[in-house]
Design goal:
This protein is of the alpha+beta class and 415 residues long. Helix content is 19%, strand content 36%. Strand 20 and strand 21 form a beta hairpin. The N terminus is likely disordered.
Length: 415
């Protein structure tokens, strides 16, 4: 069998495709996020010997006889000294079934923006709850962010079950409480799993202490949850990133963020609205009859159209909304506030346009970590999808034109 690779997955030595799951962890302070991730890495044999020795050495310096697995992800010195997570710690590991990119995000309310950053590209979010404390304010806040970001899969990991005697009734109580909040937030579903990150119960292997739980261990669930469904099922969207000229022929390069394109498809270029036909597709420099999200490709059109970076090529009748009036849910990320009247840059896929903040849903300003709504008026039209339908073409960021600082993350609301 010939092995092929693309951005949707990689291949093993015999050519079998191994896909990738991006997931994030969230939860209140001291619920055990870093310990859970450390346990996941350790028990799945994804930690190198020198890394484990460094953790063991750091643990001994703190008077601990056994390695503190939380140190595998708490990489900043300030985090190790305070015993909390501040930055988003990214880790990469793999099993025989799947590759993983995980983001361990902070629990403190002042680092909510970091959780938004980590979860914005995740297909799954693990929300941890301390079995002793149950659902707390920050748990509800992280659930709200998962709902706002339309994360396809949510796992409620009820941690520290060993500290409540592995009691099923304690687990059921927390699940029922969380389910009520999930319904209010419009979170369609979640998967509850009882775990003990410190001991290792139900993290990589199923726990003998909780035989009343008939579901999978956490890693088993992560290995089998569907990925990439949204991208392949959505309408075709191809933001042009770069134009490659080869004599009289133009190749339009970029990532197909959703749907599929085929040679012979009639397409529309936005924002001009001009139509054409695909005469060629290259995937990794090799001609192909079709391409599927999220492959990076080159496309050739039948007509000499004025297509440049920032334009979007679509196929079919389901086209994005072309508008200069943008309304969106937002999370403000910068330390400086966002105010009505501010002039900003809107970066949407590969397109950047000037805009002005027209309204903040009645609020005077948005400060760091605030969730709110914004209305923008852009200088040029944008080809937008509702964020509920597409997390790629329904998302944007606001940038300060003076110094390039990222200000705000936005999720488009067309309805």
């Amino acid at each position: 069998m010939t092995a092929t690779t693309d951005t949707a997955g990689t291949t093993d030595m015999v050519g079998a495709t191994i896909d990738t799951l991006r997931f994030a962890t969230a939860g209140s302070v001291d619920d055990g996020k870093s310990t859970l991730v450390g346990r996941l890495l350790h028990d799945s044999k994804s930690v190198l010997a020198d890394q484990l020795e460094a953790v063991a050495h750091a643990s001994r310096n703190r008077g601990q006889q056994t390695p503190d697995l939380a140190l595998l992800t708490d990489g900043l010195r300030a985090e190790r000294e305070q015993g909390i997570t501040i930055d988003v710690a990214y880790r990469y590991f793999a099993t025989a079934k799947r590759r993983f990119i995980l983001a361990d995000t902070p629990g403190h309310v002042q680092y909510t923006r970091n959780m938004v950053t980590g979860a914005s590209t995740a297909e799954l979010t693990i929300i941890l709850v301390d079995a002793r404390n149950g659902v707390v304010e920050q748990t509800r806040r992280h659930a709200a962010i998962a709902a706002l970001l339309r994360v396809p899969h949510v796992v409620l990991a009820v941690n520290k079950m060993d500290l409540v005697g592995y009691e099923e009734k304690e687990f059921d109580r927390i699940v029922e409480d969380f389910a009520g909040h999930a319904a209010e937030l419009g979170l369609p579903s979640f998967t509850p799993i009882p775990v003990s990150a410190l001991v290792g119960d139900n993290v990589v292997d199923r726990s003998a202490h909780m035989d009343w739980f008939g579901g999978p261990a956490l890693l088993e669930f992560l290995e089998n949850v569907p990925v990439g469904v949204e991208a392949t099922d959505a309408p075709a969207r191809f933001p042009v990133q770069y134009v490659i000229r080869d004599g009289e022929v133009r190749h339009y390069a970029g990532q197909l963020v959703s749907g599929a394109l085929r040679v012979g498809d009639r397409v529309t270029v936005h924002p001009s609205g001009e139509g054409s036909e695909i005469t060629g597709i290259d995937v990794l420099g090799v001609p192909a009859e079709a391409a599927y999200a999220p492959q990076s490709i080159g496309v050739r059109l039948a007509d000499q159209r004025d297509v440049s970076r920032g334009d979007m090529i679509t196929a079919g009748v389901d086209v994005p909304a072309l508008t200069r009036d943008v309304r969106a849910s937002v999370c403000h990320l910068a330390d400086r506030p966002l105010r009505v009247g501010d002039r900003v840059l809107v970066r949407h896929t590969t397109r950047t346009v000037k805009a002005i903040v027209k309204d903040l849903d009645g609020a005077g300003e948005l400060s760091a970590n605030d969730l709110g709504r914004v209305t923008l008026r852009t200088a040029e039209p944008l080809a937008l999808d509702d964020y509920a339908l597409s997390r790629r073409t329904g998302a944007f960021i606001l940038i300060d034109p003076a110094d390039g600082v990222t200000l705000t993350a936005g999720m488009v609301e067309l309805s």
